[in-house]
């Protein structure tokens, strides 16, 4: 087992992923060494290409954060490329029907558990020569519920074999339902996802601001660009009077 995110979740720990939306390997590596458990590489809402993502994952291959990719859709092509470049987590957006996560599991896993093709890629150089034998035990599938229609199928989605995490997309759930967080209608949807996910023995995901919500253990943090702004504000408000030695900022 080299997917430390899967290990930590199995041990009852919480995990947090920092979001990556830009193709700069230096930003990727800075996030990968910042203390995040995994990196949420955003390919649904960004122009990132798989070639750019492959370059970033390769640059951070010796760093502790595990690469996860939110694919544009649960297609064979997207998931095949995501796993070939070395991702150990496949995040599937806009899950309404259980068939979507069933497809994701099928394309992410080698036979006999799935139908992933044995092609080329940099996965072997990153995760070892026995990757073919170990990949199925290390690759995770995360299904995102973002709409009331998905909530209606939460029990079926969570019951799909091979799904590791069911993620509550907080902002989209508001966008699709019209109910803000904290309203009874919104919280009823979150509760249904919560009960369905934990009842099926899966892990429950959400935004990092929900760390104190009972039962949640898999979190998405803001993107690197937002963290740069926060870091700049902290620096400008700092009262430290001793300058750091040049080159030690990392």
Structure overview:
This protein is an alpha/beta fold and 250 residues long. It is built from 12 helices and 8 strands. The chain has an 8-stranded parallel β-barrel with strand order 1-2-3-4-5-6-7-8, surrounded by 7 helices. α2 packs across α3. It is globular. The two termini are 29 Å apart. The mean pLDDT is 95.
Q: How many strand segments?
A: 8
Low-confidence stretches: none
Mean pLDDT: 95
Number of helices: 12
What is the CA-atom radius of gyration, in angstroms?
18 Å
> Pairing-aware structural class of the strands and helices?
alpha/beta
SSE pattern: HEHEHEHEHHHEHHEHHEEH
Instruction: Report, as a whole number of angstroms, the end-to-end distance.
Output: 29 Å
- Sheet of most strands: 8 strands, parallel, barrel
Shape: globular
Helix content: 40-55%
- β content, as a range? 15-25%
- The strand line-up of the biggest sheet is 1-2-3-4-5-6-7-8
List its salient traits.
12 helices, globular, eight-stranded parallel barrel, alpha/beta, 42% helix, 17% strand, 250 residues, 8 strands
